[in-house]
Structures are given as C-alpha cells and as structure tokens.
C-alpha cells in the first residue's frame, strides 16, 4: 500500500500546487444592440477572484499565427460582474455600466480568437480561446437614417409655428394699444 501512496501524494501535490494553470470562461457582450463594432471588440473581464492580478489579453487573427498582447491589472469587482449592469434607474432614465475590455485597432469584417492569461501571486489562470468577429464596413449611403419626418411631426411643427406667430402678433397689438392710452 505504501508504494501506491507516494505516487498519489505526488500527483495531488502537482495538481494542488500554487502556480498551476486553471481555465475560466470569457465571452463577448451578448446583450448589447451591437455586440461587435467595425474596428473593435468588447470582451468580458476576468472573474472577480483575479482582482489585482496582471492580465494579458491575447488576440490572434483567424488563419494567422501572430498574437497581439495587451496587459493590464484586473479591476476590482463591485458586486456581480455582469457585462452590462444597471447602476441607477429612475423615472424615464437608466444608467448602465459596461464592465468589459475593449480591443481596438482591428480589421473590419475579420474573425479573431481571444484569450486571457492572468497571473496573481504565484498562481496563473488562463481562459479558453473564444472566437469573435468584427463587423464589415458599410457605405454611408446604405445606412438607413431612421429619423425620417412623419406626418405627425409635420403637423405639430406647423401648429406650433402658427401658435407662435399668433402669440407674437397679439403681443405687438397689446403694446400698440397700450401706448395709445
């Protein structure tokens, strides 16, 4: 039994020793109206237990071996770390906070693979590599304005203009009659 115990202890020590790598998940921002931009991507920050650790974000273009690295210190968590969280909500307004890392200067319409390595103390954790894509560029002419004038807007504008004209005309008549007396 003793010969089997030593290898088991060595395996447990190797698995539980500080400095071993663990995997965590990251994601893109699924709840936003536009999860991908033309020249940048938004990536979830590392988990809260890695606060204060030195993070390295690695971005690799699909079908390319070149990896671009960005380093930063993992910011502290304030409660749950959602990508988009509501900070304050009142009558007619909502304030949100975006807790994500923005990867900039990317090529439009391109697929990338993104992952983290975070070193905190003697331990190192890494994320799985996730695929993300930037949006292709669109010509300005192909973008719909969405703010075209409706019939109701025209009617309201005409009514307000006529009311303002009548108000100014009544003010002038009142001044002219007041000076006469």
TrEMBL record:
Residue ranges crossing the lipid bilayer per the database entry: 153-179
The keyword Ion transport is annotated on this UniProt entry: no
Any Gene Ontology biological process: epithelial cell differentiation
Pfam families named in the record: Uroplakin_II
Keywords: Membrane, Signal, Transmembrane, Transmembrane helix
Signal peptide: 1-21
Cellular component, GO, one term: apical plasma membrane
Cross-referenced InterPro entries: Uroplakin-2
Protein name (database record): Uroplakin-2
UniProt source species: Erinaceus europaeus (Western European hedgehog)
Organism ancestry: Eukaryota, Metazoa, Chordata, Craniata, Vertebrata
Gene behind the chain: UPK2
């Amino acid at each position: 039994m003793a010969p089997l115990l030593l290898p088991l202890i060595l395996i447990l020590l190797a698995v539980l020793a500080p400095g071993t790598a663990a995997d965590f998940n990251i994601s893109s921002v699924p709840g936003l109206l536009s999860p991908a931009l033309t020249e940048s991507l938004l990536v979830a920050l590392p988990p809260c237990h890695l606060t204060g650790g030195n993070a390295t974000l690695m971005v690799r273009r699909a079908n390319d071996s070149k990896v671009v690295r960005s380093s930063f210190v993992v910011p502290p968590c304030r409660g749950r770390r959602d990508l988009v969280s509501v900070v304050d909500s009142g009558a007619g307004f909502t304030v949100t906070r975006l807790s994500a890392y923005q990867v900039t200067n990317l090529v439009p319409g391109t697929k990338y693979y993104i992952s983290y390595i975070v070193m905190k103390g003697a331990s190192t954790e890494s994320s799985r590599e996730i695929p993300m894509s930037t949006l292709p560029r669109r010509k300005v002419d192909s973008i719909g304005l969405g703010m075209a004038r409706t019939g109701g807007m025209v009617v309201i504008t005409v009514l307000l203009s006529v009311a303002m004209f009548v108000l100014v005309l009544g003010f002038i008549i009142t001044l002219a009659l007041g000076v006469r007396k």
